[in-house]
Request: fold
Amino acid sequence: MSKIKRKQFATYIQAQTSTPSYVLLGTDLEELSIEMNANVVKTANILGETSVSIDKYEKQSSVEPFKADSGDDLFTWLKEIIDGDQTLSDLETNVVHVDLYATPTVDAYPAYKENVVVEVVSYGGNTEAFQIPFNIHYTGVRVAGTFNPTTKTFTAA
Reply:
């Protein structure tokens, strides 16, 4: 057995441009984690015992920094969100998490696609680059399948 490198767990986000396309997250990012944000319920009884239950997760990821590249579909979509003060369904898309460490089947790797809502946190930045940090809020609607990184195609199982 060997340790799985972070680059072997790839995260793609679908940029909702005129022709939606998947963009690999990772350029300029030193870290990208999914915060589970569990809803923990603790109840103490009169015997001094405590029961603990987790009834849901409110997952979220923070993409920061996101340095703008004018040729990138994700930048184009994020800039449309900013310029149009977009809200509600205009912020909906999906992400695909791909297990590149697994054995591929016909050039596709095990993956799952999950519906998300994108929240632009701010825009501007310092002298280094125009930046648009954003949060990804997972809705819990998830589908297992496979993803081909070459064609950027997800196929539901």
Q: What stands out?
A: The mean pLDDT is 96. Residues 6-156 form a domain with the Elongation Factor Tu (Ef-tu); domain 3 fold (CATH 2.40.30). The chain has one domain: 6-156.
